[in-house]
Structures are given as C-alpha cells and as structure tokens.
C-alpha cells in the first residue's frame, strides 16, 4: 500500500500526464475511428475505375517477353504493365525506362491530351462530360509522391475533387485520388505522428507518446486499485 505522500505524488503525476496527453489521445481516437469506419476499397478509389479494364490478357500479346529481351539484351529488368489500351512492356536500360507495346513491340509515343482523355473514358465507369486534363512534367502533386513524371492529371471535377493520374509515357494508371482519400491520408499522418513522409510507424515521436500513454493508463489503473482498497478497508 502506498503512503499518503506517494499517493499524492501519483495523483498529481496522473493529472499532469492526462492533461499533457489528452489532445493526442483524442486525435488517436478520432483518426482511428475514421480509418475503421471508412471502406478501404472506397478510400482506394476503386469506384472511380472499372478494374476489368486493367486485367492482363495474354491473348493481347503478339510478341513474347523472350522476343523483347532478344531485341534488348542489355536490359536488366522487364515488367508487363496492364493499361486500358492493352499490355505494355517496361524495360530498364542504363537506369532509364523504355516502354514498348505488348501488341507489336514498338516503342510507345508519349500520350497526347486526346489519348489521355480516351484512356480516362475507358477507365472511368461514369460520365466525363465535366472532366479536364493537365500534363504535369516538372513536379508531381504531393498526394501521389514524386513518381511517374511526365503524367496526365485527369480532373473529374465532381463534388469530391476526384482525379486520375495516368503516365504519359506508358498509359499506366498511377493513382486515384479524392477528398475522402485526402482526409484518410491526413488522419493516417496524425495517427502515426509522422508529419514528414507519413510512412514511418516506428518514429521516435510516436514511440515516446505511446510510452507516455501507457504510463498514463497504468497510473490511472493504480489509482483505481488504491481507491478500491481504501473502500474495502472502511468500516461498514
């Protein structure tokens, strides 16, 4: 059993820990609740794209991977990408990417605005009557990281600012974004307390606050136990 002095110190410590941790505990609760109640497929933007258009179909390949590698023996990597216009080979040559048609093996020309909008119409199950497009060549939006330049940003101009990002080099769909995804991304950042990359779940800030939250809970549990003990010791 703790002495009166130790009990006072414990109560004071618990009070200040609770005051200090209160805001972060509320943020953890709200962000965790949002991430739990939202359908992850909706967050991923699956409703924005007809996924059947992105299924690799071997029957569309008129040139084999072996034939491609025989043409480019210096290639150190070969991938097959699904696009709405058919499969595309991606080769890595001297650190650079080369995209070839899976139907004839010829290098792909950069997508024009008309090509990008055609792809978007093939991918999106709804109407694109209000959509617009923009070619990004210098910097990619933060919501998709630094990947894929040059790329076409297809703005659906709907109520949730939905966007499709399509590689101008390969026609590959790189990302699907909308306001609920952006809010999810914000909640994820707040939840893991990585305000820079939003990826590191082992960062020191999260570790430190987690330990403080544990101390807060343990001190509260100990105070509750002490209160029960005192209640049992009081005469009836």
- Total of helices: 6
Please tell me the overall pLDDT: 89
Helix content: 40-55%
**Structural class by SSE content:** alpha+beta
- The order of strands across the largest sheet is 4-5-6-7
The number of strands is: 7
Give the DSSP E fraction (strand runs of 2 or more residues): 15-25%
Query: Separation of termini?
Result: 21 Å
SSE topology string:
HHHEEEHEEEEHH
Main sheet characteristics = 4 strands, antiparallel
Describe the structure.
It is a single chain. The protein is 42% helix and 16% strand. It has 6 helices and 7 strands. Strands 4-5-6-7 form a 4-stranded antiparallel β-sheet. A 3-stranded antiparallel β-sheet has the order 1-2-3, covered by helices on one side. Strand 1 and strand 2 (88-93) form a beta hairpin. Helix 1 runs antiparallel to helix 5. The protein is elongated, with a radius of gyration of 27 Å.
Summary, kept brief:
The protein has six helices and seven strands; from the N terminus they run H-H-H-E-E-E-H-E-E-E-E-H-H. With 236 residues, it is an alpha+beta fold.
Helix-strand blueprint:
Blueprint: H1 4-37, H2 40-43, H3 65-71, E1 77-81, E2 88-93, E3 96-101, H4 113-123, E4 132-136, E5 151-155, E6 163-167, E7 173-177, H5 179-192, H6 204-233
Antiparallel strand pairs: 1-2, 2-3, 4-5, 5-6, 6-7
Helix pairs in contact: 1-5, 1-6
Question: Which tags fit this structure?
Answer:
236 residues, alpha+beta, 4-stranded antiparallel beta sheet, 3-stranded antiparallel beta sheet, elongated
């Amino acid at each position: 059993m703790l002495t009166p002095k130790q009990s006072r110190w414990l109560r004071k410590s618990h009070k200040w820990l609770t005051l200090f941790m209160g805001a972060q505990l509320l943020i953890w609760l709200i962000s965790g609740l949002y991430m739990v109640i939202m359908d992850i497929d909706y967050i991923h933007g699956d409703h924005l794209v007809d996924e059947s258009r992105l299924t690799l179909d071997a029957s569309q390949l008129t040139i084999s991977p072996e034939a491609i590698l025989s043409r480019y023996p210096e290639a150190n990597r070969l991938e097959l990408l699904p696009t709405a216009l058919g499969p595309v080979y991606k080769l890595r040559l001297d650190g650079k990417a080369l995209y070839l048609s899976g139907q004839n093996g010829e290098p792909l020309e950069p997508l024009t605005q008309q090509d990008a909008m055609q792809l978007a119409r093939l991918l999106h199950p709804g109407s694109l009557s209000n959509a617009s497009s923009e070619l990004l060549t210098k910097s990619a939006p933060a919501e998709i990281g630094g990947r894929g330049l040059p790329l076409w940003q297809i703005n659906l101009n709907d109520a949730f600012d939905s966007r499709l990002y399509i590689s101008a080099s390969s026609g590959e769909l790189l990302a699907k974004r909308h306001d609920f995804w952006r809010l999810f991304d914000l909640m994820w950042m707040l939840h893991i307390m990585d305000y820079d990359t939003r990826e590191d779940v082992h960062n020191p800030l999260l570790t430190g606050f987690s330990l403080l939250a544990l101390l807060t809970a343990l001190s509260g549990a100990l105070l509750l136990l002490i209160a029960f003990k005192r209640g049992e010791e009081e005469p009836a």
